[in-house]
Amino acid sequence: MQDPSPARRIVGAVLSLVIAALPAGAQDLGAQDFPSGPLRMVIPFSEGGGSDVWARFHAPILSRHLPGQPPITVQNEPGGGGTRGSNAFATQAAPDGTTLLGTSGSSLFAWLLGDFRVRYDFADWTVLMASPTGGVVYVSDELGLSSWRDIDRLQDQRLVFASQGITSLDLVPMLAFRLLGFDAHYVFGYTGRGDGLEAMRHREVNIDYQTTSAYLRNVAPMVAAGEAVPLMTWGVVDAQGQVRRDPTFPDLPTLEELYEFRHGHPPSGPEYDAYRVFASAGFAAQKMLVLLGDTPAPIRDTWLEAIRAARTDPEYLDRAPEVLGAYQTLVGEEAEALARSVIRIDPGTRAFVLDLLASEYSVRLTE
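The line above is the sequence of Tricarboxylate transporter; the predicted structure tokens follow.
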């Protein structure tokens, strides 16, 4: 056989150096260590909500960048405000990389508040990816508003909200509605925001909120059809700690703006402090993709490589802004750092919220 040309020998040498420089697990893509499947992404909420939309968007793209391209099944396990599926993941999943959990603010809130149903600990998990998101509060067209500027029309109206539980992410709108002075009533027992959306579609309730992904997919068409009116967003917090308008919804006010529009001064006091803490904790790292903390490092690293590759996938770049909104997803150490910042709560704020839940809703979280 004829020896390769000098040019080919140079190219081959360069490729060998590039392959040798790749991280462990990327050279062979974890073919030996990475599980062949099946793979599951547990979502502790019902189908159709923001977490479900987020998971079903990511799953096929991640699959393409894993060794052997194994399919990833999204498994909905709703109940308990996000605690049922999270408990099952913590107590039943094996640390072999085949099962991941998509957390939400609801599962985080229950843990922060010491909910007796919680059998998991965020500190025991490895955060692979953290996706900030937003949320939009909207009302039924039957309430007679044409835009958020008509908020005073809600003053004497009875508002009904479908809730998956007072310790879930629904705590944020509940605190917000109190601040705004709404006559809000809650129907408990729903298993996810997707159920709240269906309740709105069937005119069973007249005020709701959805996280960005679910709002863009499911509520925006209702707004375009004149069936719903957007009211406000939770906003985003900048590096200086200031609340800014959500970049995905720049025409909608934050709660702070809506409060000042209605009352003539910015919100303050213990209720607002509690709202701000939980709004930040619930949305800055609203959706996290986690593995059990004792998953072997090569498997964890293969997942991280797949996530990083997915973020540059043409389909992700093309569809993510429309599906997920204009937010920056964090991966690896950045995601872990963000998670550490939101799994803490000031004891005074925690005590205030627990007292509020007990006195106003007869909810006591300790057995």
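Note on the example: The radius of gyration is 23 Å. The chain is about 40% helix and 15% strand.
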